Amino acid sequence: MEDRREIKTDEKKEQGGSAEKNGGAPVCRRTTIGGQALLEGIMMRGPRRSAIAVRKPDGGIMLETEETAPLSKKINRIPVVRGVYSFVSSMMIGYKALMRSAEIAMPEDEEEGVKPSAAKPEVPSAEAAEAAEKTAETAEQAAEAAEKNAGTAERAAEAAEKTAEAAEKSAEAATAAKESADAAGNGLATENKKNGGMTAVMILSAVLGVALALLLFKVIPEAVYGLLAKLFPGMTGTGYGYSLLRSALTGIMKVMILVGYMAAVSQMKDIRRTFMYHGAEHKSIFCYEKGLELTVENVRKQIRFHPRCGTSFLVLSVLVSIFFTMFIPAQLVPGSEILNVLARTGIGLLLLPVIMGCGYELIKFAGRHDNTFTKIISAPGVWLQHITTKEPEDGMIECAIAALKEVIPDDGSDRF
Question: Which of 253, 279, 310 is nearest to 91 (CA)?
Answer without folding.
Answer: 310
